[in-house]
Amino acid sequence: MKNIKLNWFIILTSFLLLLPHLLIAFDSDALERLKNNKVCEKCDLTKADLKEMNLQGAKLSGAILDQANLMGADLKDADLRGSSFHQAFFENAIWVDGQICNKGSFGKCLTESLEQARSTKVCTNCSLPYSKLSGIYFRGASLKNSNLLGSDLKRANLVNANLSDSDLTDADLEGANLTGANILNVNFSGTNLSETIWITGTRCKKGSIGMCVTKELDELLENKKCSECTLVLLKMPNLDLKGATIRSSNLRDGVFTQSDFTESVLVRSNFSGSDLSNSKFNNANLESVQLVDSLLSGSDFTDTSLVKISATGADFKGSTFTRTDFRNAEFFKANLSKSTFTDSSFVDANLSNVNLNEAVFENIDFANATLVGSIWINGLTCLNGSIGHCITKNIQKTLTKKECANCSLPYANFKASDLKSAKLDGADLYRSDLSFSNIQGGSLVNANLKESNLKGANLIDVEYKNANLSGVIWVDGKVCKAGSKGVCITEPLEKLFAEKRCQKCSLPFVNLQDKQLSWYNLRDSYLMGADFRKANLVGVFFERSDLTATNFSGANLNSAAFEGAILKDARFDGATWINGRVCKPGSIGRCIQ
After folding, report:
1. Residue 244 to residue 394: CA distance in whole angstroms
2. Distance (Å, rounded) from C-alpha 477 to C-alpha 394?
3. Which of 73, 90, 98, 453 is deepest in the core (most CB within 10 A)?
4. Does residue 153 contact residue 172 with C-beta atoms inside 8 Å?
5. H-run or E-run covering 341
6. Angle value at C-alpha 183, between 177 and 189, nearest 5 degrees
7. What confidence tens digit (pLDDT) does each residue in 411-428 have?
8. Residue 18: which H helix or E strand, with range?
9. pLDDT (tens digit, 9 = 90+) per residue, 311-336?
10. CB under 8 Å, gap of 24 or more: what pairs does 207-215 form?
11. Among 575, 582, 577, residue whose Cα is nearest residue 561
């Protein structure tokens, strides 16, 4: 009996000696770090006395604050992600969003917003960060645009709730029910969706973090097939869906950057709000796909069908489109700047208010496409009436005043336009369509006409000294070679200079001003509008050539041969005629001596 009493005495004494340590369960060193640096991540502060402590902006992620005294403490902007505060006291504390924790804040901070949400199930634009709402019945609740950062919603009933535009970053929805909930534009970054019942009624697989992994997703990844699937908010960059068939499915607000959709069929599916930047869509069929507000910059759409797509507000900046079909596509307010378009069709497409600045177009069909309000490739706005082509203020000025020196006019549509005597010195007419236009008497000195179309144009008396004519489709349909400056260099012209003869050559409006061409053979050639001013044409053979509107002013034509040549409207003012005499002013169609 004595021994038993002695044992109990030892046990009791030991307990009394250990009692202070049992009561003070927290890590004292961690508490000091918190006081000094406001940093105590994943540390144990159980039962710590933090009353009225300034913890503003403190880093407490993963900390154990169970039974801690935080009454009157300032927790504004503190990081409480993953922290535990079971039975902690928060009365009169300043919460992370600046709200005051009301009386009864035990184990959770009861703010006005939280009490409103719990009592009315209506709390639009509410601030509810790190709220304890596990098991809450929020069926049909309206929590639109609310802040639920890091909140505990385990096993919550959110059936048909409106959570659109809300922030659920790092929230815990394990086992929650989201059937029929509106989750449009919800931020689920880091959210625990393990075994959550998803909006479709399908249960998310265990371990679903940041997105709901379902059987439908497994099937898509395994078989690359999905019809009428709902797979919203997926975060799957670098996805290989080459050859996949995804029909009439909802993949809104996902992250699919640098993914491969080559040869895939995505018809009638919805990728609105998704990030598909730097992805491949070669030979893919995206007919009637929804891409509203999606990110697709730097993507490749070679041989892709984008017929009837809806891409309002989408960003395609810097993408490549080769042989792409855009017929009846909707691009209102989309960004297509710095993209390259080759051999593609925008027939009947809506490109109004689209950003096309610095885009490159080659062989594009804009028939009946609406471009009103768009930013053109040169940064100018397309004016009203821009149907099938962009009408900028510079184009309007050129057509009405016939003067726009040094103006930016790339890809301008002047087809069959009356530009007689237009002054366009130094203008940028890159890839413009001037086919069948009348530019007679105009000036294009130092202008950039690179790769423009002048087929069938009237260039009589046009000055284009030092103009860039590389790649220009010339009047006769021939293409000017690279390096053509002030003169369109074609194979016939190169042959003329190499062999000093070019019979039956087509050289309309050729600029041979001041050239030494004595005894050259140009019989039976087409030389309409050619410029031979002050050229040495001694002994040149022009028999049976078409010299309509050719300018011989000041040229030396001594001993030249003109038998059978067409000289209609040819000018000979001041020229030395075949007999050595000088032609008088007004010598049109013949030399007046």
Report:
1. 47
2. 27
3. 90
4. yes
5. strand 340-342
6. 90
7. 999 999 999 999 999 999
8. helix 2-23
9. 999 999 999 999 999 999 999 999 99
10. 210/235, 211/235, 211/236
11. 577
Reply yes or no on whether the pLDDT at 575 is more than 70: yes
Provide the whole-model pTM. 0.77
Q: Can you give the residue ranges of every domain in the chain?
A: 490-593
Whole-angstrom distance, CA of residue 515 vs CA of residue 492: 16
C-alpha span between 163 and 255 (Å, rounded): 20
Pairing between β-strand 320-322 and β-strand 340-342 as defined by DSSP bridges: parallel
Residue 256's Cβ-side half-sphere holds a number of Cα atoms within 13 Å equal to: 27
Name the one residue in this structure whose structure tokens are 């898509």: 220
Show contacts of 346-354: CB within 8 Å, 24+ apart. none
> Is the four-CA dihedral 418, 420, 422, 426 of positive or negative sign?
positive
Q: What pLDDT digit, counting tens, does each position of 430-488 carry? A: 999 999 999 999 999 999 999 999 999 999 999 999 999 999 999 999 999 999 999 99
For residue 26, pLDDT over 90 is answered with no
Residues 6+ positions from 497 with CB-CB distance below 8 Å: none
Distance in angstroms (rounded) separating the CA atoms of residues 362 and 218: 42
State the Cα torsion 389-390-392-394 to the nearest 10°: -50
Q: Is CATH 2.160.20 correct for 490-593?
A: yes
